[in-house]
Amino acid sequence: MKRRFIILISLVLGLSLSAGSVQAALKAATVTKIAQQLKKQHFTGTVLIVRNGHTVLQRSYGYANFAKLQRNSAASTYQLASVQKVFTAVLFMQLVETGKVQLNTPLSQYYPQIKHSNQITLRQMLDMNSGLFTTTEPQKMLSDRQLIKFAVKYVQVKQIGQHNYEPVNYLLLTGIIEQITGQSYQHLVQKRLLQPLKLHHTGFVLDGFKQETHAALAYQTKITFLPYLFRVHTTRVAVKRKLGTGNMYSTASELFRLEQAIQQGRLLKPASIATLFNATDGSYRGGLCNYRHFLLVMVLKMVTSLI
């Protein structure tokens, strides 16, 4: 079944590039071509490209709410899906910086009941190389503690050390963060990330997404020439169980401001940034695929919206 996704792209060009090379990389003609290709592909959402702190391209396409004829705009809020893992990774590295946890600590120190947890490090979990996976999810509303307990009970392990993208890694890291701090994940995100950066249109879906004036809904394409005929819905249970892995929302500009704050060392020390995002070949590190010159490309597939 073909689906029409609401997609947000935030492309951040790192400060390590020289002005000349950046300008060569993003000439006006190139920006125009990008816009043309997005339109050709029936892109729906918001695109933000920033160069040396200046917006090169910011355009929105399609409808946020077709029933109200409300188009996507720079103010549109989108569910962040898996990019939320960056928030979780930053919180974790802040604890590493203060000596409250180490990257080479075995998972068994926190969840010894997980099979082979003594062979898995927290670093491997950050990089999705732990071998952890799960094939079942809770079907009712659970608290943070209950969600973690459920994951610990049903998580499985195979091929430790090989890359396998599994959200359960970050769910368990969230549990570890809560264990160490004695505070809820949501409180920590608000206190350590959103409030310092004044991100007023970034938050948790179950708390504020429906109240956002420019909240973007998701649609499913069953009939190509009627792209907004079918809404995509999900339940509160499905949103809640994405603890630490995919139950937040933001705008393109606020997501950029978070990534910019990371690059500028306002949330983590330079050494921590280098450690967390220590790849240049597109490998998964710290919630993102990392490329040369700290080029972060985030493509968020917004396939869910609350009933």
Automatic annotation (TrEMBL):
Source taxon at top rank: Bacteria
So which residues are the signal peptide here?
1-24
The residues covered by the Beta-lactamase-related domain are: 34-285
Record keywords, A-Z: Signal
The family database entries (InterPro entries) matched by this protein are listed as: AmpC-like, Beta-lactam-related, Beta-lactam/transpept-like
PANTHER family, per the entry: BETA-LACTAMASE-RELATED DOMAIN-CONTAINING PROTEIN, D-ALANYL-D-ALANINE-CARBOXYPEPTIDASE/ENDOPEPTIDASE AMPH
Q: Give the protein's recorded name.
A: Penicillin-binding protein (Beta-lactamase class C)
Provide the species name.
Loigolactobacillus coryniformis subsp. coryniformis KCTC 3167 = DSM 20001
